[in-house]
UniProtKB/TrEMBL annotation:
Residue ranges of every copy of the Class II aldolase/adducin N-terminal domain listed in the record: 15-194
An example molecular function term from Gene Ontology annotations: lyase activity
Gene3D superfamilies (UniProt xref): Class II aldolase/adducin N-terminal domain (3.40.225.10)
Protein name (Swiss-Prot/TrEMBL): 3-oxo-tetronate 4-phosphate decarboxylase
Pfam families noted in UniProt: Aldolase_II
Length: 219
């Protein structure tokens, strides 16, 4: 008797969401049941992490599968930030994945009184410019507030990453790996920014930033 193993095209994406979620959680990049991940599917639908799920213990089979209007097709109830993710995708047809975390240093920066709301972290390193670029601050809303979607809609066309005030980063990438790399770069640069606070550090010059943007365009 032959065994026919049918591999659903979503299977590897489901596994990748769970593996990278665990990697982020295991390294302390988000705590408890905070944070959420989504991936856009070829048919315009999405896979999203369920609400109240721990990113360290995702079950690939229970991820929320949504159609292209955001209706749940299968799996557990989606993240309460579903509309935030969908608003970001709407503005960014080139983005295939979004990661939202409560990564500590990024959240700390989101609480500082002196941050420039148009650009929360200066261009300290080349990789920050290459992966993140300018980081606008989104005013505070309660988690899951549909108004968060409206607030990012005006920013996400120009920016692949935004920082939610007193909450955390939301980062888009062309695929999940790219979104995770950018989130990690953002968190490390937030840490550097806090380490160097009060030291008047030299950032990259406008010319150095322009050279990086020409050589390594972000999507
Ligand atoms: O980070 C979160 C809310 O902003 C977590 O919410 P969910 O558990 O609904 O994904
Ligand atoms: Zn959150």
């Amino acid at each position: 008797m032959s065994i026919h193993l049918h591999r659903h095209p979503q299977n590897s994406l489901r596994e990748q969401i769970s593996t990278l979620g665990k990697s982020l959680f295991d390294r302390g990049l988000t705590m408890g049941s905070s944070g959420n991940i989504s991936v856009r599917l070829d048919d315009g639908g999405w896979l999203m992490t369920p609400t109240n799920a721990c990113l360290g213990r995702l079950d690939p089979a229970r991820l929320s599968h949504l159609d292209n209007s955001g209706q749940l097709i299968s799996g557990d109830k989606p993240t309460k930030e579903q509309f935030l993710h969908m608003a970001m995708y709407e503005e960014r047809p080139q983005s295939g994945a979004i990661v939202h975390l409560h990564s500590t240093h990024s959240v700390a920066v989101s609480c500082l009184p002196e941050v420039d709301p148009c650009d929360c972290i200066p261009p300290l390193t080349a990789y920050y410019v290459m992966r993140v670029g300018k980081l606008p601050l989104v005013p505070y809303y309660i988690p899951g507030d549909p108004k968060l979607g409206d607030a990012v809609r005006g920013l996400a066309g120009k920016h692949s990453a935004v920082l939610l005030a007193n909450h955390g980063p939301v980062v888009a990438g062309k695929n999940l790996e790219a979104a995770v790399y950018a989130t990690e770069e953002l968190e490390e640069t937030a840490k550097l920014y806090l380490l160097l606070r009060g030291e008047n550090p030299r950032g990259l010059t406008q010319e150095q930033v322009a050279e990086l943007e020409a050589r390594f365009p972000r999507d």
